[in-house]
Write a structure and sequence with these properties.
homodimer, alpha/beta, seven-stranded mixed beta sheet, 17 helices
């Protein structure tokens, strides 16, 4: 039921409600206290209705004793009441005609038998009224386009961007959102699924496939609710939008941890591996690798092949990058004769014109980057821009900036819109910050050569697709 | 010729000269201009003698026309003259009785045939006078104990610490030193080897083995000058001081890059793998992994086993850590019955008392950390301290600090001096910074669960030693 026209009547009220009721709004600190405040700040003041049997008001907004007292149009209810009170609150919502509910309350299947019984009760009530439920034990959604959010996040996390985030756990999803904007990663939608009594990752993926604001999906799972359906929906994403996946439970210890956390059966990990590989979803083994790949996906185009050129001011870092590239299944091919000829003109005698291209302290990094961006034998480019403090100081004394080392990198990015480009810088703080500033978010800057290579290789993994016989990465040795 | 008494007559003048001549000091910007200034600032003003045939002065220090005009005691010469002038400058040094020379000049074997001939000439002169040569094409040394340095670095890089750095390339070594202090990594000695016409990594390792200020060695190589000797010296380090190695040329592309960079033959990589594995040197496949391991080695004790306990405020991050632990060859064992009992007392009903121990928002992270530090079934501990922004804000409003989430972590560190402890935090900036501040450099703080686990696993790799049958890590999947 993927809706490519962007409309999805089941999911739409979660992200774009006409009005929202917060059941369990309260006057003492807690989510029920801060969420109404956040929603008002985000421009939802006239479409938020607060419910608490105690009545009164909070933040100058009235607390209705029950949903029946709410007069406005409401098509989404957010439940922040104690677990035991959730079934009754759902009945009230059902009677009111509300068909979308986010249950933020915890204390269900994740806590053992008593909670499991309560969770069954929730299912029954939902079925009776035809209510679609997100949660329980989740924080719901964010939609940056309309600044709607059922979770509290830092203001910067509400800046619209092309990345959708799907996380099973509310805490982890929330922490991720606190962190992403600092990496220059901004989101379209975010969803935390919790115990998945109804809405699961497949529902959300179907919605995101049709969501025009979403270009890349990043997902953390502890297990799937429905393997066959997940396969089907991931196949629909193939070649359309990359889906980056981190799934824990890779090992028996991780599997047990997932079970006790959100009650997920992690299942046989090899089956997940096959599912992701065959559908073209990109699985990562570490959170960092997934985040870095996301940085490349949101800013860089899709490469036409796996041939990487490396241009560097440090031979050592260039050699590390070349090692990483081969280990990741990329090629580090010879440069075209015309590129070699061009670089040799005006190059100092010590410079070996090859790939990796070590320009050393020649100042030829901009020329080198341009030459390989132009080179038809190259599909993507990693620029390594480092400079020892001692050299940087002289450079500065002559009125130059750290970014000057790169030349006009944003113009270069704009001139060759079809070739991915990433940068790496490390060392003295001011130097590294200068490089990041010069790149201006249009070219990702990584702080190790291997990180840059891994991010670029993910672009090629997606572009090559599941059937293109992507080479198995060389096992990492330590 | 490893000298465990810390004296090493061949190497000593490189790190602790009585007096140093800078041949090629100059009045126009360049290393020859800034190095005398740096040495004077570091307290070497009365032991530095500057030589330049043009005469005059720089920074108020006289420029002698030749070494013959220098009156002070000089046992080390640093050459910053053009490559062609190096052999003659060495002859002058030899005549003066100087037996240690650092050649910073580039333009030797790394540039092709002409340079190779010049490098042979350097060897001849060195042999004739019995001069020990570091370089050419290097930046020499740093000794933080006496603030002596033949390379310019940021002031913070001169704070003494337990880590020795050996790098083949001057540029890379220099950049690494610019970066290390920002990670809380401070050095005892640093050496950049360059083209290794004489002094190589084996000489330096022998010196560092006997150097009391050095507890951990971090080395970047593009190839060894003498495999048999490297094996011998690494065997001497076994069980004494960890040697962390990053060697490029793991792949054909990396190998070619190394060849053109410092003229190193990278050799068969599998042989290096065997050499490092058999001697107990710890090889890393990425710069980041090596740096993170160094963070753990400089601050944490050696573990007695590979049994890891994970205590976390996020179940998802705990599951990721458990996966990484198993992939790295660690165990995630059940907690002792007494620990389980202790944690159950006063724990909320939803808490699953197991390993990983997910304490959620209970505020029981300090209690959990203490319990596993005390647990005899646990050899090392990873604490994951995260908190969503929304929760953090309430926490702050009640007067608490981010660090308070941890309890008195430095006291805990001090109370259990024999068990390694690492932390992980991510999310909202103030929260993460607060955790780092609370840890105060005594416990390393990583920004991903996998990074923390990898760093701890390195400690166990070293402690287990090469013959303890360390389990081969599970291949990483992506």
């Amino acid at each position: 039921m993927a809706c490519r026209d962007g409309r999805n009547p089941v999911m739409e009220p979660f992200f774009n409600p006409r009005g929202v009721a917060v059941i369990g709004a309260r006057r003492s600190p807690g989510f029920g206290y801060f969420l109404p405040l956040a929603l008002r700040r985000q421009g939802w003041g006239d479409r938020v209705f607060l419910v608490n049997p105690a009545g009164g008001e909070v933040h100058g907004m009235p607390l209705r004793r029950s949903l029946r007292e709410v007069e406005g149009e409401v098509d989404l209810a957010v439940l922040i009441v104690p677990a035991q009170r959730v079934p009754e609150a759902m009945r009230e919502a059902g009677e009111r005609g509300i068909r979308n509910v986010v249950i933020e309350s915890a204390g269900f299947a994740e806590t053992g038998d008593g909670g499991r019984a309560l969770q069954e009760k929730v299912k029954e009530v939902a079925a009776h009224y035809g209510i679609r439920v997100m949660g329980p034990n989740c924080l719901g959604v964010i939609n940056t386009a309309n600044r709607f959010s059922t979770m509290e996040v830092v203001e910067e996390a509400l800046v619209p961007g092309p990345l959708a985030v799907v996380a099973q756990s509310g805490v982890f999803g929330s922490i991720l959102l606190d962190a992403l904007h600092r990496m220059g990663l901004f989101v379209s939608k975010a969803v935390t699924l919790g115990n998945r009594v109804d809405i699961n990752e497949c529902d959300v993926l179907e919605y995101l496939l049709g969501d025009e604001a979403t270009e890349v999906v990043m997902m953390y799972l502890e297990g799937t609710a429905d393997g066959r359906r997940l396969r089907r929906v991931l196949e629909e994403f193939r070649g359309v939008k990359p889906v980056l996946v981190l799934k824990s439970g890779r090992t028996p210890a991780g599997k047990e941890a997932a079970l006790s956390h959100t009650g997920s059966m992690a299942g046989e990990d090899a089956l997940y591996d096959a599912l992701f590989a065959q559908t073209g979803a990109l699985r990562f083994s570490t959170l960092e690798d997934m985040l870095r790949a996301a940085e490349a996906f949101v800013s860089q185009p899709s490469p036409r092949g796996g041939r990487l050129a490396i241009v560097t001011t440090s031979g050592s870092l260039g050699a590390m990058a070349a090692d990483a590239a081969v280990a990741e299944g990329l090629e580090v091919p010879p440069l075209s004769p015309s590129t070699v000829e061009e670089m040799r003109r005006g190059a100092p005698g010590w410079m070996n014109v090859r790939n990796p291209l070590d320009v050393g302290p020649s100042g030829l990094l901009p020329k080198g980057l341009r030459a390989v961006m132009e080179d038809p034998a190259v599909d993507m480019v990693l620029g390594i821009a480092v400079m020892p403090y001692a050299v940087f100081r002289e450079f500065k004394a002559m009125g130059a900036t750290a970014g000057g080392l790169l030349g006009d990198i944003r113009r270069l990015r704009a001139e060759f819109p079809e070739k991915p480009l990433a940068l790496c810088s490390l060392g003295e703080a001011e130097m590294v910050e200068g490089i990041k500033e010069a790149a201006g978010g249009e070219v990702p800057v990584f702080t190790s050569p291997e990180a840059g290579v891994k991010a670029l290789s993910s672009l090629w993994r997606f572009a090559a697709g599941p059937t293109a016989g992507f080479r198995v990465p060389v096992q990492e040795r330590e």
